Amino acid sequence: MTRLTQDSSALLARYADGPFRLEAALADLTEAQLDIAQSASTWTIRQIVHHVVDGDDLWQVCIKAALGNSDGVFSLQWYWDKPQDTWVEIWRYAERTIEPSLALFRLNRRHVVDLLQQIPDVWERHIRIQWPHRPEEPVTVRDVVEMQADHTLGHIDDIRLIRQTHGI
Q1: Whole-model pTM above 0.85?
Q2: How many CA atoms lie within 13 A of 115 on its CB side?
Q3: What is the pLDDT of residue 78?
Q4: 42-70 as b/e, with b when 16 or more CB fall inside 10 Å?
């Protein structure tokens, strides 16, 4: 097994494990505790969960587009046109239960992992992405999977910090 294959296997495992790690970070929290934030100006645990899952759902489309059309262009301009805090309000993160989002997260990741395991030369497939205020550039499936795996782990750390700060 080559180093790249080992790294790819580790990346895929880290990506696949995201939903389970998120659920472990939420273990034993009550509905009321989901509404605790690090400070008055930061997101609650509930809002973080919805943010992670919705972001993952959006980027899944990029992965599929890259797998199917390397000549295409992917853009989330409609999303990037508004600040993150606006989406938190528009999509009612504070009012929604987390169970449907967690179920979606598990199934989406399982779906993408299955897809990645079936397609040859999957990691270097790419699509051009139109970032806000930057020139268009190619992004590989590896880049997106790694970005989403890291994004999830970063927010799990946020949840752990909230729990530690508030003793929950």
Answers
A1: yes
A2: 18
A3: 82
A4: ebbbbbbbbbbbbbbeebbebbbbbbeee
Count how many domains the chain has.
1
User: If 0-12 CB within 10 Å is exposed, 13-18 middle and 19+ buried, where does residue 101 land?
Assistant: buried
Distance (Å, rounded) from C-alpha 85 to C-alpha 47?
10
Report the CATH number that the domain containing residue 65 is assigned in CATH: 1.20.120.450
Domain holding 135, by residue range, is 3-166
Do the Cβ atoms of 80 and 136 come closer than 8 Å? no
Q: Which amino acid is at 57?
A: D
Q: What would the two tokens of residue 71 be?
A: 């000549």
Split at pLDDT 50, 70, 90, the class of 6 is low
Report the candidate in 112, 97, 122 with the shortest Cα–Cα distance to residue 19: 112
Paired sense of beta strands 126-130 and 73-75, if any: parallel
Q: Is the four-CA dihedral 76, 80, 82, 85 of positive or negative sign?
A: positive
